[in-house]
Amino acid sequence: MTLKSLIRTIPDHPKPGIQFRDVTTLMKDPAGFGRAIDLLAQRYGSQEIRLVAGIESRGFIVGAALAHRLGAGFVPIRKKGKLPGPVIHEDYALEYGTDSVEVHVDAVNTGERVLLVDDLIATGGTAEAALKLIARLGGVVVETAFLVDLPDLGGRRRLEALGQKVFSLTEFEGD
Ligand code: AMP
User: Fold this and answer.
1) Which helix (H) or strand (E) holds 42?
2) For residue 124, what pLDDT is reported?
3) Residue 175 predicted with pLDDT over 80
4) Residue 66: what pLDDT?
């Protein structure tokens, strides 16, 4: 059993031509989900992570489980208009138009060591916006971690060009 074999591909979702990498099939597998969190916890267990920041919404699932294992706190990075308190936001480009992510202004303190997680990195636009939010609050992002990297879409290179370290448990060719 490999982690990659537990991730289901749904062709043409949410629109024709997109190969949707569905991590819910990994998450529902007790051994598979446990293994994914174990591998991340081993990698970051000695990195003095104070906060795990997870990107809505599948990043919450990975991020919360990992934060618990690391003895870290959890910070949600949410789509526009969802967080109840004062926020800062960052816009990012989609194929058509823009979207926005937000974080509470008091979610991260200056100098705190943060691990950013999401289920998947494609173009890296979402993760880059999340990184900007954390940087604006003075957080130090130790690394960005994903269950899935789609290398052909360039997200890893984009984040690495910003000086950011990127880690993924699996990779899928193509888009
Ligand atoms: P991006 O900003 O292009 O790196 O897109 C990353 C976000 O979009 C993540 O939150 C993913 O959950 C989602 N996403 C993008 N492409 C896919 C895909 N092929 N399969 C599943 N989720 C995707």
Assistant:
1) helix 30-44
2) 97
3) no
4) 98
Answer whether residue 89 shows pLDDT above 90: yes
| Close Cβ partners of 40 (under 8 Å, ≥ 6 residues apart) | 62, 66, 69, 117, 145, 169
145 inside domain: yes
Catalytic residue among 21, 50, 58, 78: 58
Number of structural domains (the chain) is: 1
Domain assignment present for residue 56? The answer is yes
C-beta of 122 in contact with ligand 1 (< 6 A): yes
Beta strand 98-104 with 87-93 is antiparallel
CA of 122 to the centre of ligand 1 (A): 5
Domain of residue 151 covers 47-171
Peptide bond into 16 cis (omega under 30): no
Residue 78: give its domain's CATH number.
Answer: 3.40.50.2020
95 catalytic per annotation? yes
Whether this model's pTM surpasses 0.85:
yes
CA distances from 139 to 28, 88, 95, 101, 130 (A): 32, 14, 29, 16, 11
Q: How far apart are CA 92 and CA 143, in angstroms?
A: 20
Annotation marks residue 112 as catalytic = no
Residue 48 has pLDDT above 90, yes or no: yes
Residue 1 resides in a domain = no
**Domain annotation covers residue 61:** yes
